[in-house]
Amino acid sequence: MSFALEIRNLKKAFGGLEVTRDVSLTVAAGARHALIGPNGAGKSTLVNLITGVLKPSGGEILLGGSGIGNLSQAERVKRGLARTFQINSLFPTMTVAENVALAMVAHDGADARVLGNISRDPALAARIEEHLLRLNLSDTADRPVSNLSYGQQRIVEVALALALRPNVLLLDEPAAGLAAKDVEMLLDLLKGLPDTVSVLIIEHDMDLVFRFAQTITVLVDGRVLLTGTPEEVRKDQRVRDVYLGRRHG
Amino acid sequence: MRKPENTIGTSFPEMRSALRTHRFGWFEIVMLVVFVAVYYLLPGYLPLATQVAIMIIFAISLDLALGYGGIETLGHAVFYGIGGYAAGLYALHVWQEPISGLLVAAIAAGIFGIVSGVVVLRAKGLTLVMLTLACATMVHEFANSMRAVTGGDDGLSGYRIDPIFGLFRFDLFGRTAYIYSVCILVVVFLIARVVANSNFGLTARGIRSNAQRMQLLGVPVLNRLVLLYAISGALAGIAGALSAQVTKLVGLNTLAFTLSGNVLIVLILGGIGRLYGAVIGSIVFVVLSDRAAAIDPFNWLFILGGLIVLTVWLAPDGIAGRFSALTQQLLGRERKS
Fold first, then answer.
1. Measuring CA to CA, which residue among A101, A117, A111, A121 is closest to residue B197?
2. 3-state secondary structure of A200
3. For residues B173 and A197, what is the distance between their CA atoms, to the nearest angstrom?
4. Which residues of B touch A132 (CB under 8 A)?
5. What's the predicted TM-score (pTM) here?
6. CB atoms within 10 A of CB A17
7. Is residue A29 packed enough to be buried (19+ CB in 10 Å), middle (13-18) or exposed (0-12)?
8. How far apart are CA A130 and CA A100, in angstroms?
9. Which chain A residues have a beta carbon less than 8 Å from that of B206?
10. Is the minimum CB–CB distance between A98 and chain B shorter than 8 Å?
11. Distance between CA atoms of A154 and A47, rounded to whole angstroms?
12. What is the pLDDT of residue B244?
């Protein structure tokens, strides 16, 4: 079978510095896959390679079985790869409903339609409402994003990515900077995502990772150290040494 | 309209306010009443009122580009001038019918918007400002040197315009010109409103808010900006053409930097990104310039300058912005009490 996302022998070097060394990774359809690793392990580089910010020095990236290594960021989005950003990159002057509408209209390929009033389009209104309701954002629909709390903005970030109806959703440190109760809110939301979306999450919050992911890949020094279930990763001595070791002394 | 069955949570009318599209309200009614009242009550001021209407059209066109798409331009007069010269030359050499003259002007200015936009709109911020300025200056110089075609310094004149629909002759008092301009203004306002409320209008606002993220949503940002620039340019061309048809003269000043600056001031006075701002700003700007110049022909720019300082200080979102903030406050208070 083909995987939702497959990475084969991916390499990236900046000059002599190898940041990604022969990384292979598969994300099955509907998987909840986490990528963890200490600072400098090459997680962000890997995200940038997958989404097309960086060009790999070697290896392949396949989305739903077809290679996307040579596509631009926008083309990868069109193929069904959506991502969230570590630093919020929303449309701050626009309302939550408008933010979501922008993504939906863009996904429909209808963003250049000059005729037709968006606020008189009941199908679009219904889709936005349903989307916001699912993500618990209904109350904020008419508020500009810049007026929301940081935690809510993170949720809108996820809402925007999901509005693109992705096959694969890449979450780049979604819990960064969140208060504990907001992390719970985020976790509830992530657990409620439909099975049609495969999720690859990069996260520092170990509690969130172990409660959410079914599969965890540990990245150390640009290499895959281990891929396994949360239980296997928790028990692995090497992981304890290089990563969790600091805490367990 | 019937609600679809799967609608849950907030209701459809609330979604309308969440998407913040332009809605007809008392403002349009008041403006129509004012325009009709001017015709009957101030017949001596019809030429000035015609200037106001043309300035509104021009400012609306700029509002689409700047207020919706965030295209910072200091050369918008280039479209006004091209529209004016296109309409003048069309009347001089081809046909004196006015409506087709407007269309020719809109197409000419729109095409120039596409051609110049593809080059200019790759830049952002100060670079974009300078490029639009340079673009307008080049066309200005071109028109100046093509004396045989444009009349150079002397301007383009000596053409006549046929009666509208073959029925309404342009009279000496400017009555026909006024009604004609106001009718075209209404049409342009409606066109701008359709564009602003469409998917494309939303896209434009998204580009203004965060162009990079729009790109990552899969939207070809440059293409969209060029389209917006062309629509905006075409509407500005209509304003220039109206001026050419009504005054029977197209001068180099229609391409000049001063006009680009004035229309920007109009929009800052009125408020950007809300269509209303163009209307209010134009009225304040043209009427005040006229009155101030009548009172003190030497120092009248002081008054205008003072007004701009006051506006930026007291109402940074423009007069229309200040006003809608006030009404929202009042409405909010009513809801609470």
1. A117
2. strand
3. 69
4. 9-10
5. 0.89
6. 8
7. middle
8. 11
9. 91, 94, 98, 102
10. yes
11. 18
12. 97
On whether any CB of chain A is under 8 Å from the CB of B9, the answer is yes
B333 at the A interface (CB within 8 A)? no
Q: What is the mean pLDDT of residues B222-229?
A: 97
Q: To probe the interface with A, which of B3, B22, B217, B226 has the most A CB atoms within 10 Å?
A: B217
- Counting DSSP H helices and E strands in chain A, the numbers are 10, 10
| pLDDT grade for B334, boundaries at 50, 70 and 90 | low
**What secondary structure letter does DSSP report for A4?**
S
Using CA coordinates, name the residue in chain A closest to B21. Answer: A119
The complex's ipTM? 0.85
The residue behind tokens 């509005």 is: A163
Average pLDDT, chain B: 91
Distance from CA of B64 to the nearest CA of A (A): 13
Beta bridge pairs of residue A23: A10
Tokens found for residue B271: 């408020």
Break chain B down into helix, strand, coil percent, rounded to 5.
75, 0, 20
Per-position b or e across B115-129, b if 16+ CB within 10 A of its CB: ebbeebbeeeeeebb
A87 touches chain B (CB under 8 A): no
Do A45 and A12 form a contact (C-beta atoms < 8 A)?
A: yes
Inter-residue contact B41 to B33 (CB < 8 Å) = no
CB of A244 less than 8 A from some CB of B: no
Q: What angle do CA B242, B244, B249 make, to 5 degrees?
A: 160
d(CA A76, CA A55): 13
Q: How many residues does chain B have?
A: 337
- Interface touch A126/B6, C-beta < 8 Å: yes
Q: Tokens standing for A126?
A: 């219904």
Query: By C-alpha distance, which of B89, B119, B43 is closest to B240?
Result: B89
